[in-house]
Amino acid sequence: MTSEATEDMWLFGYGSLIWKPPPHFDLRVPGYVEGYVRRFWQASEDHRGTPEAPGRVVTLIDRSHWNTLTDQHSDAPLQTWGAAYRIPGPHVAEVREYLDIREINGYSIQYTPFHVAKEFAASHNLPAPIDCLVYVGLPDNPQFMGPQDLETLAEHIVKSRGPSGENKDYLYGLDQALMELGEGSEDEHVHDLARRCREIESRSSKDAGKAADSSVIGSELKRVGSTAEQEEIEK
Ligand code: BEZ
């Protein structure tokens, strides 16, 4: 075993890793990175969709690249919140292998400074900032979708599912996990998409309710009709 293999590794999660931790971490730290913008611009063929019908998950876009794009969510916070995990040295190889299998669909590895949330830093003695490994879906990966129309994206998320479950549950889980990280950790892009998806779901359950009501009314009418018919025959 090399000496590198026994060094601890820090991993930054900005998507499902926030609420679905890797195996073998000994510390989870809330905080943020800078210089990126989180967007639901990565197609998911292996977790929240399938190769035939890919879902949508988040990636990080380098802010200098994002500035050249036209995005309907034209504001983005300077800080991208998430959670950093400290992986003890003896488990690094296993966790890397687990993550490569679990997450690598189009993502590349980068390293970025991570800033500990101030409420957490006050009670823990940690380096500042912490150099973290992060998986980023770069613009040249085949799953990178680029800017999306928000309502179309929300509709797509509502109808997608894959081996890890419903795409909308990934979005709702991320929205909830982000709100719990610290002061200012909410992400408007994620929150607005979650709001749109809930509206789409509630519209479609109202439509389904109306369709069910009209079929009940239809069958009542049919029954009334058939009783009348019967009375006619009996007379
Ligand atoms: C995450 O932060 O949850 C994550 C995002 C993309 C690839 C791997 C992990």
UniProtKB/TrEMBL annotation:
The EC number on file is 4.3.2.7
What InterPro entries does the record tag this protein with?
Answer: ChaC (IPR006840), GGCT-like (IPR013024)
Instruction: Give one GO molecular function term.
Output: gamma-glutamylcyclotransferase activity
Could you tell me the superkingdom of the organism this chain comes from? Eukaryota
Keyword Lyase among record annotations: yes
Q: Note down the stretches annotated as region Disordered.
A: 200-235
Keywords assigned:
Lyase
Is Cell membrane among the key words of this record?
no
Segments of skewed composition (Basic and acidic residues): 200-210
GO CC annotation terms, alphabetical: cytoplasm
* Pfam families on file: ChaC
Q: Which GO terms describe its biological process?
A: glutathione catabolic process
Q: Which PANTHER family match?
A: CATION TRANSPORT PROTEIN CHAC-RELATED (PTHR12192), GLUTATHIONE-SPECIFIC GAMMA-GLUTAMYLCYCLOTRANSFERASE 2 (PTHR12192:SF2)
- Name of the protein: glutathione-specific gamma-glutamylcyclotransferase
Taxonomic lineage of this organism? Eukaryota, Fungi, Dikarya, Ascomycota, Pezizomycotina
